[in-house]
Design a protein that fits this description.
- This protein is of the alpha/beta class and about 375 residues long.
- It is built from 17 helices and nine strands.
- The relative contact order is 0.10.
Length: about 375
């Protein structure tokens, strides 16, 4: 199956004049913005760095294999971009990365200068492997806006005001896609006109109340949303805009990885709809959410992540690696909680288990018919 790596070989030598910017290009930059640009790309929007030089510095970083999300995927991507004039000749600036456990925020973004003609791509990073980053995602179920959304809006307005007179594409993967839509939706009217396209790659949606606002409907036609056949993150909340389904060479939740999506000459290979398993998960999750009020949702999320954070692990990888030795501390923290918190947590957990059980039973019954 052909993936983004193959696309970089096929189209990597063509300029945007020869082959206009497309959905695969947007996905590549949305994934590239996850790389550890600290001390390589300046936070200043006017301090431009050549992408080829950035890639070289990344590949020479002794700790690179420990700093990236996936050693094989990321290092291969960096090398492929460095060897691709289409991307290597771009410039990048304005890199910011903030993780604050107290404020419960994980936010990162940068700007790609596409072609030297004031055409820009503002890329918002999705959820990294920090526990607090995932908590902020789940906070979207009861809080609006979350801190990362507010930071995305401020970042985008600053980018437009600083770079001026250009056209802007905004995009991101996972939570980054949600941030891109939020920033384009709520930016000041002075800054909205330069936005040409908004790319959301398997990112959460919004509530119906938000999507029915005049601000959202104003930019809805500019949104391009893509999800894999088995989508979990991208099916969270609601999507009023149309979305395209993409085939992946991975299975289950691993299809969330953009670099596993199947590509053609200048677009992804689209499928008719998400898988039955994805539909079942989506319905079960939304049925469960609808059964909880705002207070119950917040209490459940806070309890889950309080148990995870008590372990002193800051990333999901740390928690997973040490889960056996940390379970005693997690159990102790749970037992020390007050009776009301424990009862609320048990009630919500039981409701989730019952919802999933009922959905699986209904699925089996349908297969028998």
């Amino acid at each position: 199956m052909d993936t983004i790596y193959d696309y970089l070989k096929w189209r990597g030598d063509l300029s945007f004049r020869q082959n206009p910017f497309n959905e695969v290009d947007a996905a590549i930059l949305a994934r590239f913005c996850y790389e550890p640009f600290e001390d390589i790309v300046s936070p200043s929007l006017r301090a431009f760095s050549d992408v080829k030089d950035v890639c070289a510095k990344l590949l020479n970083r002794p700790s690179l294999r420990y700093d990236v999300i996936d050693t094989k995927y990321d290092i291969d991507l960096i090398r492929a971009i460095a060897d691709s004039p289409r991307f290597a000749n771009m410039q990048i600036s304005g890199f910011v990365n903030e993780v604050d456990e107290v404020k419960q925020v994980q936010f990162s973004a940068c700007v790609f200068h596409l072609d030297g003609e004031q055409n820009y791509y503002v890329a918002f990073r999705g959820t990294d492997n920090t526990i607090i980053g995932w908590k902020e995602d789940f906070n979207m179920g009861f809080e609006f806006p979350v801190p990362a959304q507010e930071k995305a809006l401020a970042y985008f307005e600053n980018a437009v005001a600083t770079l001026k007179d250009g056209t802007f594409i905004v995009g991101g993967h996972s939570k980054g896609g949600n941030l891109a839509i939020y920033a384009a939706t709520y930016c000041d009217d002075r800054f909205n006109s330069p936005v040409t396209d908004i790319y959301n790659f398997d990112g959460p949606g919004f509530t119906e109340q938000i999507m029915n606002t005049e601000e959202f409907q104003r930019i809805e036609h500019q949104i391009h949303t893509y999800v894999p056949e088995f989508s979990v993150v991208g099916m969270l909340l609601e999507h009023m805009e149309d979305y395209s389904v993409v085939h992946s060479d991975q299975s289950g939740i691993m299809q969330h990885e953009l670099l596993s999506w199947e590509t053609g000459i200048d677009k992804f290979i689209h499928k008719k709809e998400v898988s039955k398993e994805s539909k079942l998960f989506d319905k079960a999750f939304k049925d469960w959410i609808r059964g909880l009020d705002k207070v119950q949702r917040e209490q459940f999320v806070d309890t889950v992540f309080k148990l995870m954070m008590c372990s002193d692990a800051h990333t999901l990888a740390e928690f997973t690696e040490k889960r056996k030795e940390l379970m005693t501390r997690v159990i102790g923290t749970y037992q020390s909680m007050d009776a009301e918190t424990k009862q609320g947590f048990k009630s919500s957990t039981r409701r989730l288990f019952d919802t999933v059980t009922n959905m699986l039973k209904a699925s089996r019954d349908n297969l028998k018919e």
